[in-house]
Design goal:
Strand order of the largest sheet: 1-2
Radius of gyration: 28 Å
Helix content: 55-70%
Strand content: under 5%
Number of strands: 2
Largest sheet: 2 strands, antiparallel
Oligomer: single chain
Structural class: mainly alpha
Shape: extended
Order of helices and strands: HHHHHHHHHHHHHHHHHHHHHEEHH
């Protein structure tokens, strides 16, 4: 394999040369260092930078000093085609002495350069480096600049602010809850979560009920739960506000919603989930049963009993010829344990005995117990 790659590092096409050098570095064979070293003199700046990264990958950061690689890296900061990867390379080296080389890039007119430099600095010296060198304004400028149309750059700027774990920055992040980009809004929500500030729950509530993207709504509901716990979910009827996501035409959104409802733990929405126990889609049916099990609603029990032993419940082949449960049946097992407080015996790999135990329990005692519990609910 190496013999096939070696001629390619001298190919006429610079992309082929770069790919070959990178692939050789992935092999982890340090004897290749001497073979790759001459490519530091390649006429193409990108190939030279890939060579530097390959040498560091093979021999670690010590290669920079051993082969005097720092100056070539710094020179590549001046090339518009290599500057981004050169910045990333500096950030990965772990050498804090290059901070002084990165700081001027925080004033670059290109947003991408500013963000790359900021991330490299954080990687080298932790999030506090942004405040230590007074760089916060450079990042905030990206968010305030109406000309910055690239949603991923705006999102990266928000993400960077979130990593600072500073509640005082919340006021700069909150206005972006209404950004037109789903990606930016998602990053805003995560940054707000990182702040750990319960006071922002009131700002998140409109997102739960009004955001056009159901995944954003679901993610926000979980963050409110993390910030304020079950009491915040009940106080603000968060679970009820995301019930409309169950009507989404996307089946994955429906199953995600059921999962979130189960995690939020508000059993006041159980009656809206129960009809989905009869859904034609077995994933939705079982997700509904799982959610109800988390809410400790006994009405999920028959579906879980049936699901744990339905066709396709087992993956063949465990060591010694046993069986593993399929993912769906594993969820059914967890739901049964949650609802009944019972753990049926069965070996780690062969689950057939465990399933038989559940079926036997249902036939002997479980169904009668279930019917009595349902009567209590109706009364």
């Amino acid at each position: 394999y190496i013999k096939d790659l070696l001629p390619l590092i001298d190919d006429d096409n610079e992309h082929v040369r770069s790919d070959a050098i990178y692939t050789l570095s992935c092999l982890g064979d340090k004897s290749l260092v001497e073979t790759i070293l001459p490519k530091l003199e390649d006429g193409n700046p990108h190939v030279r930078l890939i060579t530097i990264r390959a040498l560091v990958k093979l021999g670690g950061p010590a290669m920079v000093k051993e082969h005097n690689l720092m100056k070539p890296i710094l020179d590549l900061l001046e090339n518009e085609y290599t500057v981004e990867l050169a910045i990333k390379t500096l950030g990965e080296l772990g050498d804090k002495s290059v901070i002084k080389e990165l700081l001027p890039l925080m004033k670059d007119k290109e947003t991408r350069i500013v963000l790359d430099a900021a991330y490299a600095l954080v990687r080298l010296d932790g999030p506090l480096v942004i405040k230590e060198y007074g760089l916060l304004g450079d990042i905030l400028t990206i968010l305030k600049d109406k000309r910055e149309e690239n949603e991923y750059r705006r999102g990266e700027a928000v993400q960077l602010l979130g990593r600072l774990n500073d509640r005082s920055l919340v006021k700069y992040i909150l206005p972006l809850l209404n950004d037109k980009s789903k990606y930016v809004r998602s990053q805003v929500i995560r940054a707000l979560e990182a702040s750990g500030d319960k006071a922002i729950i009131k700002d998140l509530l409109p997102i739960v009920s009004n955001d056009v993207n159901p995944q954003i709504r679901l993610e926000t509901a979980l963050i409110i739960h993390k910030l304020g716990g079950p009491s915040a979910i009940r106080e603000h009827s968060v679970a009820r506000q995301i019930l409309s996501c169950l009507q989404d035409i996307n089946k994955n959104t429906q199953t995600d919603t059921l999962t979130v409802l189960g995690r939020l733990g508000d059993n006041s929405v159980a009656k809206e989930i129960i009809p989905m126990l009869k859904d034609a889609d077995e994933k939705i049916e079982l997700s509904a049963a799982w959610a109800l099990a988390q809410l400790k609603d006994i009405r999920a029990l028959p579906v879980l009993i049936e699901a744990i032993d339905r066709q396709g419940s087992f993956y063949e082949f465990a060591p010694g010829g046993g069986h593993y449960l399929s993912p769906l049946s594993q969820e059914a097992q967890k739901g049964l344990e949650k609802l009944t407080g019972k753990i049926m015996p069965g070996s780690r790999t062969d689950k057939e005995q465990m399933v038989r135990n559940w079926k036997d329990w249902w036939a002997k005692d479980g169904k009668t117990w279930y019917e009595e519990e349902v009567k209590k609910i109706k009364e």
